[in-house]
Amino acid sequence: MIVPLGQADPAAVETLLDEAFGADRHRRTAYRLRQGVAWLPALSFAAIEDGGLVGTIQCWPIALSPAAGPPRPINLVGPVAVQPGRQRDGLGRRLMQAMLDAAGDRADLVLIGDPEYYGRFFGFTADATGGWSVPGPVERHRLLARLRPGASDWPVVAALGPPLPPALAAAG
Length: 172
Ligand SMILES: CC(C)(COP(=O)(O)OP(=O)(O)OC[C@H]1O[C@@H](n2cnc3c(N)ncnc32)[C@H](O)[C@@H]1OP(=O)(O)O)[C@@H](O)C(=O)NCCC(=O)NCCS
Fold this sequence. Notes:
Layout: E1 2-4, H1 10-21, H2 29-33, E2 45-49, E3 52-66, E4 72-82, H3 91-103, E5 109-112, H4 115-122, E6 132-133, E7 143-146, E8 158-161, H5 166-171
Parallel strand pairs: 4-5, 6-8
Antiparallel strand pairs: 1-2, 2-3, 3-4, 3-8, 5-7
The structure holds coenzyme A (COA).
């Protein structure tokens, strides 16, 4: 059963993420991107089986800041995690699909992950991200985006990072 992440026990979510990624996961670049940001309830889900947590997906509102011009909002997808004993049984795809269905055509999405998975099943590519910088090391072929259909004016050179506070963003 896929449910909104708010229905899951936050401690169980952290335990599952440690199991899937290792306890040193907080040093990853993706964590720096969302530092100080709260996950989006509408785009974050849990997979529950027999009352226990077996998978999670979280999304975070971050920003893509071009060298010139205002930052634009983009959603960071991940971590996507399935309990090691339940992997490769469709749960990851169901969690991703729940998020994509909730996002519809309205959201631009970015993630750091395996193109063999996120490209093959969900259409994420590194085509637009070659000139995007991140606050830490990244393998360029793993910085993947799925942009709204018709979106053509994406900055070639830009920095991904936490969103600016509204007052600063308005001031430019
Ligand atoms: C990656 C992950 C979320 C996928 O979820 P899952 O439920 O195990 O996988 P699914 O059942 O949805 O998909 C299975 C298919 O995807 C493929 N697949 C799974 N993980 C993959 C990966 N990292 N790279 C390439 N292919 C992958 C499988 O080979 C399988 O292909 P098949 O149908 O041709 O046999 C899960 O394995 C996981 O939590 N892994 C550890 C944490 C992680 O690496 N997360 C992703 C980075 S954010």
